[in-house]
Amino acid sequence: MLLEGSCHCRAVRFSVESHEPVPFMRCYCSICRKTAGSGGFAINLGADFRTLEVEGREHLGVYRARMEDGRTSTGQRHFCRECGSALWLYDPSWPDLVHPHAGAVDTPLPTPPVVTHMMLGSKPSWVALQVDRDDSIADTYPDESLADWHRRHHLSR
Predict the structure, then answer these.
(1) Inside any domain, residue 48
(2) What is the pTM for the complete model shown?
(3) Which residues face 63 on adjacent strands?
(4) Nearest to residue 88, comparing CAs of 127, 116, 38, 53?
(5) Sorting pLDDT into bands at 50, 70 and 90, what band is 52?
(6) CA 111 – CA 108 distance, rounded (Å)
(7) Could you report the per-residue pLDDT of 24-46, keeping only the tens digit for each?
């Protein structure tokens, strides 16, 4: 599925091919929540980095999070320097993947049949979980990858 996205001020626009376009995984970790989350969580999709096309690259900034142990994350969180919109995460540890933020995608996305709530150990107390009966929850990372979840639900594109 071709995803097209942009920042709020439209200084940065992007497109990327995604085989994992269903926004099912909500991350409550402090990094995602503070850099891209609006409801106490952020939603990232899986896409093919080789297909990423960007207009307005000169407006991009990159943030690499400081981890609790003092290390700097290898993950590169791209955002618009003009309006601050979080756009995508790229980590050279997985060079074939890029993770666009669902909130920056302009293409209509499929509705997930169920949701995975991850990194609940980092969820702030003010965030009320809205967990349906068939949803999955995980205090850290779930055992199932984005790709595996899409395959299991017959939603790979």
Answers:
(1) yes
(2) 0.89
(3) 77
(4) 53
(5) very high
(6) 9
(7) 999 998 888 888 876 778 888 99
